[in-house]
Amino acid sequence: MPQNSSILFFLFLQLFFALQPCHRVVTSAAGGGRWQLLQKSIGIVAMHMQLLNNDRVVIYDRTDFGRSNLSLPGGKCRDDSSEIVVKHDCTAHSVEYDVLANKFRPLMVQTDVWCSSGAVVPDGSLVQTGGFSDGERKVRTFYPCNGDCDWVETGDGLKAKRWYATNHILPDGKQIIIGGRRQFNYEFYPKTSSPDVYSLPFLLQTNDRGSENNLYPFVFLNSDGNLFIFANNRAILFDYKTGKVVKTYPAIPGGDPRSYPSTGSAVLLPLKNLDAATIEAEVLVCGGAPIGSFEKVAKRNFVKALDTCGRIQINDPNPQWVMETMPYARVMGDMTLLPNGVVLIINGAGAGTAGWENGRNPVLNPVLYWPNGAAGSRFESLNPNTIPRMYHSTAILLRDGRVLVGGSNPHIGYEFNGVLFPTELSLEAFSPPYLDAQHNYVRPTIVSSTASKGKYIGYGQKLLVRFKVTGKLMADRISVTMVAPAFNTHSYSMNHRLLVLGNTKVTSVGTSTYDVQVTTPRSGYLAPSGHYILYVVHQYIPSTGIWVKIL
């Protein structure tokens, strides 16, 4: 190409990209995933995130540090005499982000929601519990809407103070709230006439003096209705109805802590063969910090994070941890289940621990973990981010298969200058490689289903999904997955699970059009009642999902 033509072509490209909307600017696109800046600033740190069934994300930070960078609308202000920094605050500490429109609006919380927890209940509303100071026993509800809805606070709905606790939705639609700082117990919400707080000695046994290392325990509902609870470096299978430990698992090899503040992350791997008498359930725990790291950061000694993952079959008669090595050491990473059953590991640091100013060496490269891959070759490194996502970062799956990434604030307040890792108010989307255009010819597009919006599906029922594929269909490479959206904070995605629906039967019904028939999960032990995102997956390439509700 002649030199002048090359220059003109280059200038044309610069003008083209400059004219694109901000949420379509691609910062890394040469395969291995793409990063998009959605919003330069939403005015708050995305410390907690939850996707709702109207494709809007509820995001919130904390109230005790002072004013945020986003004003409340219509002259609203929050008056709170218990606040230390600002008692009359006219700024927002929560937002609703509209994924489809790429817009956000401020929300108002009355009390401090710092380091709290929550779950989406069967009616689709987010029930959030606990926090700090005047918020530590509060319950707040956000009902999805398309208008100007806001948080509704119901007062002291908890019996114990819940700060750094974990919530999990149960088959009956209630939440169990486990642990929290100096809380070696659990309770349920909504309340019943039974006792309000139940002792859980396991949390006391896993508490390290001076560092705790058992906050935000990893909790997963097992296929038998019991709860797998991991804290520090070990786990139990717990019958929450009787208060009995059903099984005690061996400590993870090496004995290093994986829970806050030595923060690793964990997922329940995809549940398959759902009609089997005993369903194979596996938990994957990755990253964390070597024992003693939290004490050492006080002396500004930032120990290299753990680079290992432990994987365990929790229903095995003799369960044992199988260890694997990640491409990068990582603490404060986030693990997200993708629609095709692959795990994304993203965000975090290569040294130090969670806590104010405690992390170093940001890990910018996301990693895929292929659960069905050959041992020793399950990890795939992806394109790096340019924004460090350290302490108080988040990541959640969106319906279109992208991953929403936000947060990072390792400071007591908002600090933008003169610090190693400035407070980050932006939102990004990470597009995994399956969203690359080269896969469009095998990508399914859902046309309709017997679980279309407004209809419910029951347990153990036939479900028909119609979809299109423009290229050649490989019927034996079709699967249908159901994903429960996560409540994400502090490197843990609560209530996050993926089910591979069984009895797949694919039928051609027209040009490039097919029906796939599957069977829904047989009980609430596998899929607690509520909203899920349903995907058709072809050769590991997922469709855009549709919302379904199972009752």
Give an account of the 3D structure.
With 551 residues, the chain is mainly β. It is built from 3 helices and 44 strands. The strands form 10 sheets. Strands 34, 35, 36, 37, 40, 41, 42, 43 and 44 form a 9-stranded mixed β-sheet that branches. Strand 31 and strand 32 (403-407) form a beta hairpin. The longest helix is centred in the first third of the chain and has 16 residues, at 3-18. The protein starts with a helix and ends with a strand.
Summary, kept brief:
By secondary structure, this protein is mainly beta. It has 3 helices and 44 strands.
Give the overall shape: globular
- Bin the helical content: under 10%
Question: What does the main sheet amount to?
Answer: 9 strands, mixed
Query: Any idea what the radius of gyration is?
Result: 23 Å
The assigned structural class equals: mainly beta
Content of β-strand: 35-45%
Distance from N terminus to C terminus (CA atoms, Å) equals 62 Å
The average pLDDT is 93
The overall strand count is 44
Low-confidence segments, given as residue ranges, are: 1-31
